[in-house]
Amino acid sequence: MLKAAIVILLLATLVSLFSGLFFLVKDEGRGSRVVNALTVRVILAALTVALISWGFYSGQLVSHVAW
């Protein structure tokens, strides 16, 4: 369940990234939609990092790296 939530947040971040690019090209940087897309992207990235950190802290995510 946690991994699915992380993947969904990452996909939503990508959608926000490309919507910001679309608004930048379409509005030529004059509108506030680019800023809104950036705000959404930063919030989604912060939620993703927080969810990954919580997953490692709670033991639901484990690293199997030898180093």
What keywords describe this structure?
single chain; elongated; mainly alpha
What does this structure look like?
The chain is mainly alpha-helical and 67 residues long. The chain has one domain. The protein is 78% helix and 0% strand. The chain has helices at residues 2-27, 33-58. Helix 1 packs antiparallel against helix 2 (33-58). It is elongated, with a radius of gyration of 16 Å. The two termini are 27 Å apart. The relative contact order is 0.16. The mean pLDDT is 92.
Taken in chain order, the helices and strands follow as: HH
State the total count of DSSP E strands: 0
Number of domains: 1
The number of distinct helices, counting runs of at least 4 residues, comes to 2
Largest sheet: none
Given the C-alpha coordinates, what overall shape results? Answer: elongated
Provide mean pLDDT, rounded.
92
Helix content: over 70%
What structural class results from the helix and strand content? mainly alpha
- In quaternary terms, these chains amount to single chain
N-to-C span: 27 Å
Beta fraction of the residues? under 5%
Summarize the structure.
With 67 residues, the protein is mostly helical. The chain is built from two helices and no strands.
How is the topology of this model organized?
Blueprint (H helix, E strand, L loop, with lengths): L1 H26 L5 H26 L9
Helix pairs in contact: 1-2
